[in-house]
Amino acid sequence: MFNFSWMAQATTSKHPRLYGLLPNFSTMLALLVASAAIAGGLWVWSFGLAFTAAFLPLFAKTVAAVVGMTALNFWFSREINTFMFSTREVRENFKFDEHNPTDLRKLVNQVRCEVNAHFKKVYGDKHQDIPMPRLLTFTDHHFKMVTVEGRNPGKAAILFSSGALNSHDTNLNQRHMAALVAMQLVKIYHRRSLGGTLVGMGLDLVNTLENARSGNLFYRVIGFLIWPLQFFLLLQRAIKRSYEYDAALTVVDMGRGMDLIDAIDFKVCPVLFEKPTYRRLAEDQASKKRSEYNGPFASWVRWFTNWIDKQEYAGDDKTGWRILSAIDAIVRELGFFINELFDPNPRSTNLKTPMRQAIPGYEQASNQADLDRLYARDREINRDLYKEIAKKDRYEVIGPDGSGVVKSAHAHEHSHKLKEKITRLEKAIAQLSKGRVASKPTKGGAPITTQHARGKASTKVQPHQVADSAKRAAKPTSKRHH
């Protein structure tokens, strides 16, 4: 494979001299060549911009620079993200997560086939299959999944952080991962990267002019005139959020909506073990509301007081003034709104709302049995797509009958070793118990003589020895007469 590893080796000194401060001659020469090449490339780029600006009207240089950089970023987006994240390609038979071994290529390939089968039913003859995207991993302990749509679906990529592939920390099984991957593949299928790139180019242009106007009066005037174009920033975020909503609803139609809702919950709180149904939560919220306001001007302000009562959290103290709770709610929700306004990803609560409405019976489910029926219905919807997939492309772990969990051989070996240790410990405890029973007195009452006891018995003074000692003590000695 073509790479520049030989250049990296050539520009790294293996045996520097002068206490490690002076590289060898070949390294110095390679560094000079590399620096000259970089400087030459920058000079050519600057000359090209200046030459173009000479034949274009106002702001030509700025516009040309922004358009040129945007075009390069769009055309080489996959390759740029590949080296920016210091990624590694996921090859065949790569398995991740020792707690739930995941064959990532097989998982993504089956979901890709499901996406193709779904859109084939939707678009018919106009449908075009998307190929397998490039799968890459990078080191980051946080859950991150980056989608690069590329200049066409054949140049797409999905980047997984190391934290996203650790089910022990994320609490996500392979069915959850399949639902999240389906969202990324839907965005790749719709081929909306060009529109997002154009909006991003407008944003870059506005930012460049905004920065330039501080040093030049003419730029300052023009920058002030185009200041309203800052809405490009909000527009770009809004467009990307709309992609998330659209992809989530498509995943619901594919029969993975329940898994996607669970995955979103685990992304927000990985240690979430159990939660009530949506209906139970709504009933609990309603049961803990304040009593309806019946004070002065009740008929006029009841709509406002009812709104305040809905905004209070179920566990909040409700003995204070309603107007203060209203101010708290406005500050909180305004903060949520501003955060989401500048974020390309929607708030999880807002993302789940249309999904709950799109799954028939979800908001009415009151117990686990009702939820189990919704899971079963999802699996049957997904089974129709699963039948369209060739056997060689199937990954049974995330299929309609798959649990999303694979018991690893390492875990089995660890369990076997643990059982052996427990068995040895039980035997040692049994032997110790037998020793204690043997040390107890016998039925005849005679003590069991151990080596230590025998030693003590041998040193015991007999009666006749006591008498002889007394006689010797009573007999006077010559020293005492003196």
Automatic annotation (TrEMBL):
<keyword id="KW-0812">Transmembrane</keyword>
<keyword id="KW-0472">Membrane</keyword>
<feature type="compositionally biased region" description="Basic residues">
    <location>
        <begin position="472"/>
        <end position="482"/>
    </location>
</feature>
<feature type="region of interest" description="Disordered">
    <location>
        <begin position="434"/>
        <end position="482"/>
    </location>
</feature>
<feature type="transmembrane region" description="Helical">
    <location>
        <begin position="51"/>
        <end position="76"/>
    </location>
</feature>
<feature type="transmembrane region" description="Helical">
    <location>
        <begin position="21"/>
        <end position="45"/>
    </location>
</feature>
<protein>
    <submittedName>
        <fullName>Uncharacterized protein</fullName>
    </submittedName>
</protein>
<feature type="transmembrane region" description="Helical">
    <location>
        <begin position="217"/>
        <end position="235"/>
    </location>
</feature>
<keyword id="KW-1133">Transmembrane helix</keyword>
